[in-house]
Amino acid sequence: MENKTLLQIAEDFGSPVYVYNAETITNQYKRLTSAFNKVKQLRINYAVKALSNISILKLLRSLGSGLDTVSIQEVKLGLAAGFEPSQIIFTPNGVSLEEIEEASDLGVQINIDNLSILEQFGTKFPNIPVCIRINPHVMAGGNTNISVGHIDSKFGISIHQIPHILRIVDNTAMTINGIHMHTGSDILDIDVFLYASEILFETAKNFSNLEFIDFGSGFKVPYKEGDIETNIEELGEKLTKRFNEFCKDYGKQLTLAFEPGKFLVSEAGFFLAKVNVVKQTTSTVFAQIDSGFNHLIRPMLYGSQHKISNISNPNGRERFYSVVGYICETDTFANNRRINEISEDDILAFGNAGAYCFTMASNYNSRFRPAEVLWHNNKAHLIRQRETFDDILRNQVEINLN
């Protein structure tokens, strides 16, 4: 997407605004399926939590994707987007048995990650096949908040508890039709991924009725010029070879599943914000924008770095700026970043704003959440309206205090 297109979108829909490029999402999906084109049965389940707008879900459905969901609301959103229940896997963590039962009633694939729920569900519904999420005890990911496969993680059933799983399966006569893992996000070293995969293959040997093995995701995408990323092509070549060997030894052709979120949508997204004030202090030049971590929390929460471009003055001389928001506490997007000279009312474009950006937005400071726009077939489509003051008040209940 060219700067003039983004500037026009900011003018037409106001700022701040999220913009997603459908072509980038499509290309990423095709890149992943191409890397694993030698697998006979491949299933891509898009991780809804990354970006849950229903128009994005419909786009991915048109590409052949399934869905990875973590809440009953995401399950229902997927069904509303036209996905069949068989195309949706439900992988919650720490939810009630009632929520899992509700998802099961809707006909989606259930993925269970703790022994207590496994026993309760198996006792009550022994005829409903389920997947089991394994914790491989592998530390992987770009931040402790997104490393979910290590020994102290709340996610998954420990590989050391396989005997407990087998006891429950035997006692309830339930069927395990899938094995799953997810070690973390922003995984760079594919050898770590392949090592964890070997643990999953070894675990899978304990179950005779498998239909699929889900390797999760966590592929790293580049966040700045020259940044490194997961080598999907090399991973595809090596994991495909090992997976096909396992299926041959297992005596059955299984489905290889992934659940990418960031990999598919991160680079497709731009967050556009207007500069309200350029403020010079004794040591810093601040570019203060019409947004804050209420709209883009990742830099403050994860220390993530999003490329920031001044699309109003792309050829201006570079200067050092700290880009900050309008929230009433520390609210920093970038410290001393080289950006083309910024003036008030310029539009800044934040890259990699497609994943875990709008979905983590809030009304903190009673601010409105932004609009979302999808750039599809060379046309800007509004896919979420900007909130209004009525939205702030909508679910509040005024009481008579007299």
From TrEMBL:
Pathway(s) of this molecule: Amino-acid biosynthesis; L-lysine biosynthesis via DAP pathway; L-lysine from DL-2,6-diaminopimelate: step 1/1
Transmembrane segments: none
Protein name: Diaminopimelate decarboxylase
Assigned keywords, A-Z: Amino-acid biosynthesis, Decarboxylase, Lyase, Lysine biosynthesis, Pyridoxal phosphate
N6-(pyridoxal phosphate)lysine PTM positions: K49
Subunit structure: Homodimer.
UniProt family annotation: Belongs to the Orn/Lys/Arg decarboxylase class-II family. LysA subfamily.
A molecular function (GO) term: diaminopimelate decarboxylase activity
Record EC number: 4.1.1.20
Native organism taxonomy: Bacteria, Pseudomonadati, Bacteroidota, Flavobacteriia, Flavobacteriales
Keyword Transcription regulation included in the entry's annotation: no
Keyword Amino-acid biosynthesis: yes
Function description: Specifically catalyzes the decarboxylation of meso-diaminopimelate (meso-DAP) to L-lysine.
